[in-house]
Amino acid sequence: MASPGRRTYAVAGIPHFWRVESDGGRPVVLVHELDPATGGYGVAGIHHTVL
């Protein structure tokens, strides 16, 4: 189930968003992309060193 924030992003037509997390003190960036067919977001990439 998508979070309320993600549904709001999808309704607004925001095509992608990034989420930054920490992995042992190092940043990890997860890129989420809107799937027009489903209206939901999927992970489009996970970046540990280079964006």
Characterise this structure.
Strands 1-2-3 form a three-stranded antiparallel beta sheet. The model has no long low-confidence stretch (mean pLDDT 87). The protein is 18% helix and 51% strand. The longest helix has 9 residues, at 4-12. It is elongated and about 35 Å long. Strand 2 (26-35) and strand 3 (40-47) form a beta hairpin. It has one helix and three strands; from the N terminus they run αβββ. It has 51 residues and is an alpha+beta fold.
Sheet with the most strands: spatial strand order = 1-2-3
Number of strand elements: 3
Order of helices and strands: HEEE
Structural class: alpha+beta
Helix content: 10-25%
- How many strands, what sense, and barrel or not for the largest sheet? 3 strands, antiparallel
Descriptive tags:
51 residues; alpha+beta; three-stranded antiparallel β-sheet; 1 helix; 3 strands; elongated
Could you give a short description of this structure?
This protein is 18% helix and 51% strand. The protein is α+β, with helices and mostly antiparallel strands and 51 residues long. A hairpin with a 4-residue loop joins strand 2 (26-35) and strand 3 (40-47).
